[in-house]
């Protein structure tokens, strides 16, 4: 499984990447929306874990652009402001699900496994592959 982690908090995203790598997950890291979209085009990860609140190109805008070119990629949104509004909006825009920050690694792993299953199913039904 390969996942792209996108969050403007560099220390948070780097620590999360290390924790996932220990668990055998291949991780890519981006600290802004532009870098995320570039990595998505180059690497096409099946899963993106995307912070909603980022300066510049925000998470919901990244999600919209991502879904235009890569509709099968599953996006798990992270929102850290105690509000489900952005998470719900993200799901309306095609996100797989959302989790509140701070996220427990066990919860994220479970959600990533579900997202990977959804990615695999959508790729098979549309004739694509990872």
Could you outline the blueprint of secondary structure elements for this entry?
Layout: E1 2-6, H1 10-22, E2 26-30, H2 33-43, E3 47-51, H3 59-69, E4 74-79, H4 85-92, E5 97-100, H5 105-125
Parallel strand pairs: 1-2, 1-3, 3-4, 4-5
Structural descriptors:
single chain, 130 residues, alpha/beta, Rossmann fold, 5 helices, globular
The fraction of residues assigned to DSSP E strands is 15-25%
Spatial order of the strands forming the largest sheet:
2-1-3-4-5
Largest sheet: 5 strands, parallel
Q: Using the alpha-carbon principal axes, give the shape.
A: globular
Overall tally of domains: 1
The number of helical elements comes to 5
- SSE-based structural type: alpha/beta
Query: How many distinct beta strands?
Result: 5
CATH class (first level) name: Alpha Beta
Percent helix among the residues?
Answer: 40-55%
- According to CATH, the homologous superfamily is Response regulator
Mean pLDDT value:
93
Return residue spans where pLDDT drops below 50 for at least 5 consecutive residues: none
Rg to the nearest angstrom?
Answer: 13 Å
Order of helices and strands: EHEHEHEHEH
Structural features, described:
This protein has 5 helices and 5 strands, in the order βαβαβαβαβα. The mean pLDDT is 93. It has a single domain (2-123), classed as Response regulator (Rossmann fold). It is of the alpha/beta class.
Brief synopsis:
The chain is α/β, with parallel strands linked by helices. The chain has helices at about 10-20, 35-45, 60-70, 85-90, 105-125, and strands at about 1-5, 25-30, 45-50, 75-80, 95-100.
